[in-house]
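Recap for those who missed Tuesday's class. We walked through two folding examples back to back. For each one, the amino acid string is listed first and its predicted structure tokens come directly after. Nothing is annotated here on purpose, so try labeling regions yourself before you check the end of the notes.
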Amino acid sequence: MFERFRSFIENLAGNGTDKIAPDDPRIAVMALCIQVMEADGEILESERRKVRTMIKDHYDLDDAALDALIAAGENAESEAIDFFRFTSEIKRHFSEEQCIDLVGMLWEIVYSDGKRSEMEDHVIWRIADLLGVSGRDRVLKRQEAAAKLDVAEETTAQQDE
């Protein structure tokens, strides 16, 4: 499933070593990853490592290209006032299935520290909604991420629909 996602992005953006264009949808993906990391008020090293590994693998980037993409994502995220800027860019370039897969990636970031918070639930709920991902698919991806990372799904948040 992720191989199709990677192939789509590679065709869209060229290989990972090209200079990053301002309208590159990878920047929007990175900015959303950063917003998910920041959702609970602290960015842990486990979250940083998870994002670096996932993005590097999905886009087949070398370290320099990854660092450039992270910097571009951080810059875009710091200028954003909401998620819409990024989700609208992603919706223009991604299929429905790719949007669902992206929500799964975001859940993996949440669970990389072994727990999820109410704020993380809310952020992903909002992003998924803007991407047109159903509540059912959002919850399924959350469960898949928890199972993949062998994390209990306990939280104080109860936003499942």
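Example two. Treat it independently of the first, because the proteins are unrelated.
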Amino acid sequence: MNKIQVGFLMSYDYRLLKTSLPLVYREADSIIIALDKDLRTWTGSKFQVEEQFFDWLETFDTENKISIYRDDFFHPNLSPMENEVRERKMLASKMGIGNWLIQVDSDEYFIDFKAFAEALRSRNKYPEKNRIQIAGYYINLYKYTGNGILYVSKPRNQKFATNYPDYVTGRNTRQRVIYVPHIVIHECLSRSEDEIKTKFSNWGHSHQVNGEIFLDKWRQINETNYKQFEDLFYLEPEKWKRLDYVQGQSMNEIIKNLKSRELIPSKTHLLSKNFGQWFKFLFK
């Protein structure tokens, strides 16, 4: 359990890897990028990848850590979520059980991956006897404005790492979760309207989302009126109660400005969550 292995899912928003991948590169022992061999999404739609991206990837990989895993990740008889879980399991199998397996999407940016990796190494256990998941906290980005970005004010937890990748839904293995005070910026909906439509049509939740109802509200909101709106999540609206705003003309500037805010849940909150998980799985 001494290696940090990172897996990325590469699809229609592959360009975002130019932001997310460098944030984990130095601390990762190996990085595997999963790419459908026929360039299909989980709904079967086709996408294209510019050859220049692969040139960038080769130039960037100065330590020869990165490999691309091409396989058939779309099965027509499975739902989009079932195809997502299938791909994650196939990627985990390729990464190999026995080390820390971290799966990251192209639009997820670790603020301090070095600290996250250290949190994993401090919990090295034999996988089959101590199956755990490590969860950090998402800051979900909502919409770019002229001078900055709107984001969901309350962080949400998200599982990122496990020592035994028996995924059930998404990255969730339904084993014990350990919550750690680390933030990941999620460029979830801070995209153009066309890009949001593409996402809603091709991801694991495509069958659950009414895109037009969501976009109706999304179009109205800006940096001057955002406090007038609430219940903004695309699945269960009340899960994203309110928005906040931060200035920034680039993702690096936005990340820097978000780091200065107190976004990580309190120690008391983390202790309570972790005690609850410990007790829940005590006799399992």
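Answers for example two:
Residues 73 and 87 are 5 Å apart (CA to CA).
The longest strand covers residues 132-144.
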